Amino acid sequence: MSQDLKYEEMECVVFTIRRKMTSNKSPDMGLSKSKNVQQHRVSSGNVKKLQDLSWWIPFGIILIFTIATRFYNVTEPQHVCWDETHFGKMGSWYINRTFFFDVHPPLGKMLIALSGYLTGYDGTFPFEKPGDKFENVNYVGMRVFCTFLGATIVPLSYLIVWELTKSVPSSIFAAIFVLCDVGLLTLNQYILLDPILLCFMMCATWGMVRVGSLKHKPFTLSWWGWLSFTGTSLACTISVKFVGLFVVLLVGLYTIYELWRELGDLTKSMKYILQHLLARCLCLIILPMCLYMAFFYIHLTVLNKSGGGDGFYSSEFQSLLQGNSLYNATMPRQLAYGASITLKNHRTGGGYLHSHWHLYPEGVGARQQQITTYSHKDDNNLWLVKKFDSDEMPSESELVKHGDLIRLEHVITRRNLHSHKEIAPISKKHYQVTGYGENGTGDANDVWKILIHNGKEGDVVETVTSKLKFVHYLHHCVLTCSGRTLPKWGYSQQEVSCNPNMRDKNSLWNIEDNHYAKLPNVSFRVYAPSFLDRFLESHAVMLQGNSDLKIKEGEVSSRPWQWPINYRGQFFSGSNHRIYLLGNPIIWWGNIIFLILFTVVYIHAAVREHRGYEEDKCVVEHRKIVMEAGSWLFIGWLLHYVPFWAMTRVLYFHHYFPALLYSSMLTGITLNYIIENILVIFPGKIGNTIYHVIVGIVISSAMYSFYLFSPLAYGMDGPSALDADSPMHSLRWLDSWEF
């Protein structure tokens, strides 16, 4: 690393600072001081050794403290904590090759599964709920793997700041602020996606700034290696969570900036600029896209057995899952009267038309049987297709055609699909849909006209491929799934209603199961989609699932304004061994102050430059390096924080931690810059004293606050902090802290 430091430039800065410190003294004293500096120069070989030591010693110490703090008590608590119930369970499903639905891309969960598999976990533990004891379960390998990746962010913060500033003190400050945050420690010690995400995100940022450091050595083997490393890290980041898109934007902006700077160098030919552009397209666009698709190919290949998430995907998608009712299935291609069918809503992630014995509650339309959509397969999804004017089934097969009038009878409860001019439960401009009648006998409000999307008179309704609309015969509304989740009385299933707007995009349905003995069967293999079709559908379903996320019972959501001020934490474990996710308040509140200070310093520097103040060239160059480094970290913080203000989905406190890393590194750079300027203001001995006092206060404050709040991460026993006898009582600085 140290070979990249231009010692002559740094010596120029130091000499200039010393010269300013003595500028109020006599010329003879200044000359004497200059001679003294010249006399104390050492040979370049010794300088390199000193530089190596000054870089490696603090880096080594930081590594030791990182290992000690991150891996301490990593096996505790010996029960499921917070979202381990999800990601541990998903790791088990990968080991068992059972298909499931999740709103996140697959790489993080595949790595968790791989780490468990390689360390002896057999995928049998259910991970049902937080608090479940790990008894005779080899869970440690997965925790250690996640902790290892989470631990890398501390040395990576040191490396990133070093590449940006070539300043060891700035790098030390940044690494200490990341090291001493108990929130990051908590987030990194469990079977979660967050430590994996943060590791790859920091790798992408490190690769980005390393490529920037090698701008004078383009197209060398090292340059190509770091550019490819950056692209690979980008692919891995966005393959863990979609918020990885923010670091993709950061690298994209940095790349545009670098290319624009190359374009402004008139000594470079357009051919040279084009080579740079093509190299970045190859390594930062094509390579990440190929890797991203490769991860999904592995995901879809490994998960080849039917599971609980099948119903979120199309009928065609499900036909490739072993154990699914559609896998290697044979059923009639066409629909006939008397068939028992399931109807799947054709919206992305749409469920099955469903009913059960439960009624709508008092005050919610007519007190009749509930009709919903349900994302899982069961017998309550089965419907019998009947003629509108007869309960008798045809003796010979009679096909259902575009424009026919039909009734749909729920097979289990024998009540008909029904609508009337009562207001729907949630969509107040829609009509209520219910199950009505007894033993298949109802009234005229049970009659529906079946229409094939883009069909014409005489077209026969087909299994899977026909996209259908069901229009109510009397009220001229269309059967639809709004996608809105019903309250607890509806078991959190989705609302089905009848929309007078016939163009409702959610009103399309397709037949998935078609049971009818009088027609010949065809194989479902004819409907099997390609990998690209499954890849695209997976993304549509994930994005739909993200937008539909609701808060889990017992959890506390939060809003972005609460995050930087550390307003409220999040329980990871609520048993006797309590874990509480909360940031180190000294570091978090300090980050807010230094975000403001950096903005002030940046504006001050820009004004001085714009007004043409005469300053020493070395000082100007040094300030330019610091301001540029800080600017990219400030942009990184903005990109990872501001977009959450526009999101309508449920948000949690842990969403802020990627932004926290950038603000902590920015704090390290800004703090060191301010301290360096204090050395300019005060004479040598006083300046050195002030410097060491400030450094001592900052480091000791960070470490002591880590010591005080570390029980939040390592586990709290005994009374709650609300109890005056609790050792944590005095640390409850805000009433909103619930530990």
Strand numbers in spatial order across the main sheet: 10-9-6-5-2-13
Strand content: 5-15%
Q: What is the global morphology?
A: elongated
- Rounded average pLDDT: 86
Number of helices: 20
Major beta sheet summary: 6 strands, antiparallel
Whole-Å distance between the termini? 43 Å
- Radius of gyration, Cα only, in angstroms? 32 Å
CATH topology of the domain at 328-527: Trefoil (Acidic Fibroblast Growth Factor, subunit A)
The CATH architecture of the domain at 328-527 is: Trefoil
Number of strands: 16
The helix content, as a percent range, equals 40-55%
CATH C-level label of the domain at 328-527: Mainly Beta
Low-confidence parts: 1-11, 13-44
Helix/strand-derived category reads alpha+beta
InterPro entries: ArnT-like_N, MIR_dom_sf, MIR_motif, PMT-like, PMT_4TMC
EC number: 2.4.1.109
Keywords: Endoplasmic reticulum, Glycosyltransferase, Membrane, Repeat, Transferase, Transmembrane, Transmembrane helix
Membrane topology: Multi-pass membrane protein
